Amino acid sequence: MTSFKEAINSSTPVLIDFYATWCEPCKWLEPILDDISRIMEGKISIRKIDIDMHSELREEYTIMGVPVLMLFKNGNLLWRYNGFMYAPDLVKKLSEFV
C-alpha cells in the first residue's frame, strides 16, 4: 500500500475521504464513493483516511469535522469539501478536474 504522500503525488487525481467510524454522514458517503469509483474508473482513485487513526493528517489539513473530501493531483490540493455530497453532484464536481 502506498503512503499518503505517495498517493497524493499521483498524476491521476486522488480523492481522499477523511472519515471517522463514529460519523453517520461518513457511513452514508460510503456507497456513494463506491458508485463514484465505478463511474470514474481509471480517471480518479479514492482513498479513505480514518482521522482517529491518522491524527497527524487531521492536524496537518485542519480537519475539524467529518466527512471531508479533498482532491489531489501531483501533490497539489485541487478541491476541498466539508460535509456530505450526493453522487450526481460529486461526479459533476470531480469531472471538472479529470
Please provide a written account of the structure.
It is built from 4 helices and 4 strands, in the order αβαβαββα. Helix 2 links the parallel strand 1 and strand 2. Helices cover 37% and strands 26% of the residues. It has a 4-stranded mixed sheet with strand order 2-1-3-4, with helices on one face. It is α+β, with helices and mostly antiparallel strands and 98 residues long. The protein has a single domain (4-93), classed as Glutaredoxin (3-Layer(aba) Sandwich), CATH 3.40.30.
Brief sketch in words of this structure:
The chain has 98 residues and is of the alpha+beta class. Helix content is 37%, strand content 26%.
Keywords:
26% strand; alpha+beta; Glutaredoxin; 4-stranded mixed sheet
Q: Give Rg in angstroms.
A: 12 Å
Structural shape: globular
Q: Show unreliable segments.
A: none
Secondary structural class:
alpha+beta
Task: Reconstruct the topology from this structure.
Layout: H1 4-8, E1 14-19, H2 24-39, E2 45-50, H3 55-60, E3 68-73, E4 76-82, H4 87-95
Parallel strand pairs: 1-2
Antiparallel strand pairs: 1-3, 3-4
